[in-house]
Amino acid sequence: MARTAVVILNWNGLDFLRKFLPKVVDFTTDDSTTAIVADNGSTDNSCSWISENFPNLKLIRFDSNLGFAEGYNRALSEVEAEYYVLLNSDIEVTPGWIKPLINHLENNPDVAACQPKILSFQKKDYFEYGGAAGGFIDRYGFTYCRGRIFGSVEKDTSQYDDPAEIFWSSGACMAVRAEAWQKCGGFDPDFFAHMEEVDLCWRFHNAGYKVTFIPDSVVFHVGGGTLGYESPYKTYLNFRNSLYLLYKNLPEKELHKTLFLRKLFDALAVLMFFLKGQVRNVSSVFKAHADYYRNLAFLRAKRKALVGKGIKPQYRLPNKSVVFEFYLKGNKTFNRINKNYKG
């Protein structure tokens, strides 16, 4: 059994595999670490290319696209390792990138997951939107990062080059303790894609674990490789999954008030989409809320099941609104919003 398994979930990502998989193999595999590709029913000859060019690489194949969440759940159920590293196919790794992550998990048994510094592949001196220097969440479930607030991405000037506790680790590249993954149930497949890592990390916190950022590990992420940032379908997933996230994980005393206020924010988002002429995104938000209400019974069952596993919704969100800080107070960086943050 390999001590560490780096698992790339691929869906029609042949161009990314050609570009980035060779470095993953060169900079990752050794006696204690193996690289694996799990293919989500690709139709672009990804599997044949892997078999021809990397015949010794383990390839897990699914007949259809199971989504990011269930794809990884199914793939990791077939992997034996102490540590999993979930890695997007559109990431360029660097020499020595994996060692700081695994060493940190090994030396800190209370840490369930950690992530590297994630920089933009296109602008390598800037952070990348989907992870940057670690993820956070505000009192209404809006996610942001050290290095990225909404669409405002910071240049990397070493301002976040300190190890830090964070709320969520980016699914683009995250090292996870296998024991914690299994205890907390892995990703929620009903999320399909987007924010499933935030949901998992919230469960890690509720189970008593920590999540951290490790700056000594650096990778470069293309971003938006499967769904572009302006995709109406991505809008749908993010709004629906935000409601799922809050309902599943908020402490009981905060649940209904927070959800009510979040829905008001979503109504403002609809107005903004409408004023920008993004009619398809308006429809996406309405569909997201309709599907949330349609699935409330299942969400109640999920909350009950988590309590039954000893993962009681108890971790309280910080008393801070990133929407208020960003749009009304003009604070565009993490350090300005979180002036007293010490990691």
In words, what does this structure look like?
This protein is of the alpha/beta class. It has two domains: 4-221, Spore Coat Polysaccharide Biosynthesis Protein SpsA, Chain A, CATH 3.90.550.10; 232-318. It is built from twelve helices and 13 strands. Helix 1 (14-28) links the parallel strand 1 and strand 2. Helix 7 (232-249) runs parallel beside helix 9 (279-294), helix 7 crosses helix 10 and helix 8 (252-275) runs antiparallel to helix 9.
Total strand segments: 13
What amount of the residues lies in strands?
A: 15-25%
Helix and strand element order: EHEHEHEEHEEEEEEEHHEHHHHHH
Alpha plus pi helix count: 12
Unreliable stretches covering 5 or more consecutive residues: none
Question: Helix content range of the residues, please?
Answer: 40-55%
CATH homologous superfamily placement of the largest domain: Spore Coat Polysaccharide Biosynthesis Protein SpsA, Chain A
CATH topology of the largest domain: Spore Coat Polysaccharide Biosynthesis Protein SpsA, Chain A
Q: Give the count of structural domains.
A: 2
Oligomer: single chain
